[in-house]
Structure formats: C-alpha cells, structure tokens
Amino acid sequence: MSNTNGLDIAVIGATGAVGAVFLDVAAERDLPVGNLRLLATARSAGRELHYRDQTITVRETSEEALDGADLVFCSATAAASRQWGPRIADAGGILIDDGSAFRMEPNVPLVVPEVNGEDVEWHEGIISIPNCTTTPLALVLHAMRTVAPLRRVTAATYQAVTGAGAAAAAELDAQLAAHGRGEDLPAPEQFPHQIALNVLPHVDAFEEDGYTREELKMRNETRKILHLPDLPFSSTCARVPTMIGHAEAVHVEFSDQAPIGELRAALEAHEGIELMDDPAAASYPTPLNTAGDDRTFVGRLRADTSVEHGAVFWCVTDNLRKGAATNAIQIAEELIRRGKL
After folding, report:
1. Does the pTM exceed 0.85?
2. What is the band of 4 on the pLDDT scale with cuts at 50, 70, 90?
3. What does the pLDDT look like over 215-267, one tens digit per residue?
4. Is the same domain home to 146 and 83?
5. Crossing angle of helices 134-144/260-269, nearest 10°?
6. How confident is the model at residue 1 (pLDDT cuts 50, 70, 90)?
7. Is the N or the C terminus of the chain less surrounded, counting Cβ atoms within 10 Å?
8. Residue 65 included in any domain
9. Where are the alpha helices (DSSP H) in the chain?
C-alpha cells in the first residue's frame, strides 16, 4: 500500500452499471480505500458519484488521472482495457479487468478466488475476472469435481439485459413501458430484435462455426479457470427480458460415480455457493430471489439419466455482483491476504 490509511484505487467505467455496484460492494466489504478516483469517458466527466460519505467528481480517464494508483478496476470497453492495462502494469500498479481483452492471455491470471485464488501469485500487473456466466459455473463445477472428475459439460444460459450494459436495461424499460400503455414499442437499438416479451438466442457476435463469442468465452474461460484445457464443453447463450441475474441450466457428465447426495454435500460445503433446492416447496433460485446477493445459488439438482454418470442443475447469480463487481473486489482481497498489495 502506498497509503498507510489504505489503497489508492481508481475505477475506470465508474458511471456504468457495474461501476455503480462496485462502489456499493466496496463499502459493504470494507475494501481498504485510502484514496478513490472515479474515471470514465469525457462524456461522463464532471458527474458526481457517492462513496460512503464522500461525493466524488468523475474525471476523464487519462495517464494523469491514473498516475500513482496502486489498484485499478476497469469495467469499460475492451479497447479501454487494452489502452490502459499495460500502462498501469508498467507503472507498478495492478489492473483488475472486467472485460475480455486479457482473459485468454497466457501471462494473465483469470480468477474466481474461491476456485483458483492461488493464480494471483503469478500475475504481471494484470488480472482478469471471467465473463459473468463463467464465474458461477466454474464455482459449481469446482465443487462437483471434488466428488468425481468432470468428463463433459453442456449449458444453456438465460442472461439479464444488464449484462449488455445500462443502455440495454433502459431499452427494456422503455419497451415494457410502451407495452403497458398500449403503444407501439420503440425500435430496438441495443439488441437485434425487441427484447421485451421475447428471448434472443444471441449474446455477442456470431462466429463462422455458428457459436457466439459469449459461448466460446464460457468454454475457453471455464477450461482456464479449472486448469482443464481439454474439457469437452458446449453452451447456448440466450438474452432474456429480466434486469438482474444470469441463470444457467447445466448438464455435467462425470468420469466416475457421482452420487447426488455427495454432490449436494460438496455444494453445501463450498464457499460462495448456496443450495436452494426443495422442489416440493417450490424452492429454487430465480433472478428475483437471488438479486443483491454475492452467492451462487443452485437448485433442481438431480441425476442425468441419459448418461451413466451425470447430473443436472440450475444455478443463478447476480451478474453485476458476483458476476462482476464482487468477484473483482474479492480478487483485491486475495491479493491483500497474500501480501501482494
């Protein structure tokens, strides 16, 4: 720490959806903040944001604004991460990046602290957090593989609009409001089709093989976090008209016996996971009943009878908290715990 009273911290993208949640979570978890700089684009510079009892004026991201920062959190564009990340590292700071720019770089740890916190030991100034669908899945798979080795994973996601940013959330709001008034819905701008009252099997751009970049992120990032580079993995990612919370329906095939009772016990014992699984009482996680929580919630756990050793489950996570801001702050806590900050 350069400041005996705490860290000198900068937040790039402070005015975005994740940036706002970051400030809340940092206060809740008592992140040791000595000085806080809130940064964004020139368009957002001059806005005032609140952290604890402070009112802080947002500044445009620049070398001057970042000078001397111990720790920088970035939740902006991949271009912004690429522009500022190497400069922060070269200056002796640490970037914890919420974007995709560095996730698959071999010299950049991709970290979910409850899974592979030890990977922060080999950072070179940049640490990435995973995609907001990858984080909860990696957490659950890590718990399950204590029962039996993973053989194959398939998943379908149901992702809230805030995963696409504040403008996407505003678009859903506007469309729902128009529908409620009986008016024609505004034309879509953030999505290729109307998102209100709809489901789009389209998150991020399509690649030549028919998969979207989001689906490839899930596969590649899960493999990296779990240190299983050849894990067979496939997913379909869909955008749904909810505000907060990414849900996933997951099928796991194991290489050996994986009794449901043992999987249940492994999940209950694992940090960061909450089992909400009583179908008779209609108890299972939903985006609404898990919003605002940092845990990954698991329900509908059952045997996959289509394979010899398999399980099926449903999981939900607040995509702005554990899927983004909370995971980033937990990485900072891990660095502090290990004496790296």
Report:
1. yes
2. low
3. 999 999 999 999 999 999 999 999 999 999 999 999 999 999 999 999 999 99
4. no
5. 120
6. very low
7. N
8. yes
9. 17-28, 63-66, 78-90, 113-116, 134-144, 166-180, 213-226, 260-269, 287-290, 326-337
Tell me the pLDDT tens digit for each residue of 117-160: 999 999 999 999 999 999 999 999 999 999 999 999 999 999 99
132 included as an active-site residue: yes
Task: Report, in this order, helix, strand and coil percent for the chain, each rounded to 5.
Answer: 35, 25, 40
* Dist CA 239 CA 207 (whole Å): 17
Catalytic residue, chosen from 123, 142, 246, 270, is: 246
Same domain membership, residue 76 and residue 22: yes
Same-domain pairing of 16 and 81: yes
CATH number of the domain to which 314 belongs: 3.30.360.10
- State which residues form the domain around 74: 7-129+324-337
- Count the domains in the chain: 2
CA–CA gap between residue 59 and residue 78 (Å, rounded): 19
From the list 74, 132, 237, 315, the catalytic residue is 132
Residue 143 shares a structural domain with residue 292: yes
